[in-house]
C-alpha cells in the first residue's frame, strides 16, 4: 500500500503493517494540526517523533486528498500546513460555525470508526495480553455544567500519559498507541417524541 492508495477517511481498514503506520502518522498529524493550528513538516517531526521526510510526505498526501492546505506564510523554505478551511462564499451554511472544527470532527469520527472496525477484524492476531478492549457506554442525567466537569475529569485522568505522544522515550516498554474516544452529548428527543406522534 502506498500513500496514493489511502484516501482518508473512506475505504477499507488498512490490512498491512505499512497501512497501519500510514493511518497512525496521518491521524497524529491531523490531531496536531487541530491542536496547534499550523505546522511545518520539521515542527511536526519534532512534536511527534517521526522523521521530517515522513511528515512531509503524509502532509502532502493529506493536502492532495483535501483534508489540509498550505497556511499563509512569509516565504522561505518553511511550508506550514493547516486544516482545510472551506470558502464561506461558496458554502453559505458555514457562516455561523467554525468549519475547520466541524470538518476535523467529521474526519476524526471517520478515523475512529475505521480504527475500531480494523481492531475487530484483527483482534485475534494481536498479542494475547492485548486481545481485549475496554469499550463501554453509559447514559447519565447531567446539567451542562456537570457534563463539562465530567469531561474535565476524563481529560485530567489522561493528562499523565499525553506527553508520551510527543516524547517516545517516555513510553514504557510494551506501550502501544491506544484509542481513547469519549463523546459527551445530550440525547435530544426525536421529532415524533416532541410532537407526540406514534
UniProtKB/TrEMBL annotation:
Stored InterPro entries: ArsR-like_HTH, WH-like_DNA-bd_sf, WH_DNA-bd_sf
Domain of life of the organism encoding this protein: Bacteria
Gene3D superfamilies: Winged helix-like DNA-binding domain superfamily/Winged helix DNA-binding domain
Composition bias, Acidic residues: 93-105
Chain segments carrying region Disordered: 1-21, 68-106
CDD domains referenced in this protein's UniProt entry, alphabetically: HTH_ARSR
Name of the protein described by the UniProt record: ArsR family transcriptional regulator
Organism in which the protein naturally occurs: Streptomyces chattanoogensis
Amino acid at each position: 500500500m502506498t500513500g496514493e492508495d489511502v484516501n482518508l477517511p473512506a475505504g477499507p481498514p488498512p490490512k498491512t503493517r505499512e497501512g497501519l503506520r500510514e493511518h497512525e502518522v496521518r491521524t497524529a498529524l491531523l490531531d496536531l494540526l487541530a491542536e496547534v493550528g499550523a505546522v511545518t513538516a520539521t515542527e511536526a517531526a519534532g512534536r511527534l517523533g517521526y522523521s521530517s521526510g515522513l511528515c512531509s510526505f503524509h502532509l502532502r498526501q493529506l493536502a492532495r486528498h483535501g483534508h489540509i492546505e498550505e497556511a499563509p506564510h512569509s516565504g522561505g523554505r518553511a511550508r506550514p500546513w493547516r486544516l482545510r478551511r472551506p470558502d464561506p462564499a461558496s458554502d453559505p451554511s458555514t457562516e455561523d460555525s467554525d468549519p475547520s472544527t466541524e470538518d476535523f470532527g467529521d474526519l476524526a469520527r471517520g478515523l475512529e470508526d475505521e480504527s475500531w472496525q480494523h481492531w475487530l477484524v484483527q483482534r485475534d492476531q494481536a498479542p494475547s495480553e492485548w486481545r481485549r478492549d475496554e469499550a463501554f457506554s453509559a447514559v447519565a442525567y447531567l446539567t451542562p455544567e456537570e457534563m463539562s466537569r465530567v469531561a474535565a475529569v476524563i481529560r485530567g485522568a489522561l493528562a499523565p500519559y499525553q506527553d508520551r505522544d510527543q516524547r517516545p522515550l517516555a513510553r514504557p516498554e510494551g506501550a502501544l498507541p491506544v484509542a481513547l474516544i469519549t463523546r459527551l452529548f445530550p440525547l435530544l428527543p426525536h421529532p415524533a417524541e416532541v410532537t407526540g406522534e406514534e
